[in-house]
Amino acid sequence: MRKALVLGAGGFIGSHLVKRLKKDGMWVRGVDLKFPEFSETVADDFIQGDLRDMQVCERAVDQRFDEVYQLAADMGGAGYIFTGDNDADIMYNSSMINLHILETCKRRNIKRIFYSSSACMYPEYNQLDPDNPNCAEDSAYPANPDSEYGWEKLFSERLYLAYGRNHGMEPRIARFHNIFGEEGTYEGGKEKAPAAFCRKIASATDGDTIEMWGDGAQTRSFLHIDECIEAVLRLTRSEFQGPVNIGSEEMVTINQLAGMVMEVAGKNLEINHIPGPEGVRGRNSDNTLIKDKLGWAPSEPLLEGLRKTYQWVEGRLHRRN
């Protein structure tokens, strides 16, 4: 039986990936500081431990694996990443995880390892126009991410590529663009925009007012978790190294995003625009390369993903009340 190792298996994307790998018939080990928050893990083996600790990494990588998926990182939404208050923790924690994982995989002669980078590593100067952001993979340099989170992701991309060149490993690198969906964080400060709006709108009564950081004219694209997992597996099992974008090209303003969630909820709410961390003015996945190399592109409209996510968040809130 083929074996997979999922690092960050207690998180949103990692827990969904474990489920998919099990459906594919693989034996799966998950590793994380915590178990999945919203459902029981289906991993065959789960190690609860801190991947910043080399001894935990050695326990996790105690045998050969056919596929390793490195999703573990210190991250969150705009309220966590863009304030500047967590920069040192973000850079230290994620860097230590990646350094240790690569070294332990090298010692076990593990070749194929997927690394989840982020669109946050793209230069700020290419994302100032909300209507025409440039996020083509070859636009990464000269580098100028708008956050230390983005700088760490860029460093780690280069780290994985260096291990590939120098130690015969086969890294597969993806740049995620705003992955969302069911069983994702929706409160507490680390949630991303789709989940935050689902929570706010589900908690509001028709005619109420909800808050939004900034003027809402900043643009983004959002990819549902099911599409993300499909792309991750296709990339990992391909002969294409990356880096490559995994995201949607359906760009919307944040105002439009909130309006779509209201449409799903059947509510008409006012928006109070307040100061807060916003990130870059425009960001949208460029899928030219992934279509060319993997013959794949997302097929689900944003509205459908928001519908599923809203129903899940609303259900969580109703059960609590």
Automatic annotation (TrEMBL):
Entry's SUPFAM superfamilies? NAD(P)-binding Rossmann-fold domains
Signal peptide (UniProt feature, chain positions): none
Keywords per UniProt: NAD
The NAD-dependent epimerase/dehydratase domain covers 4-247
Q: Which domain of life is it from?
A: Bacteria
Pfam families hit by this protein: Epimerase (PF01370)
Instruction: Name the InterPro entries for this protein.
Output: Epimerase_deHydtase (IPR001509), NAD(P)-bd_dom_sf (IPR036291)
For this entry, the protein name equals UDP-glucose 4-epimerase
Q: Which organism is it from?
A: Oleiphilus messinensis
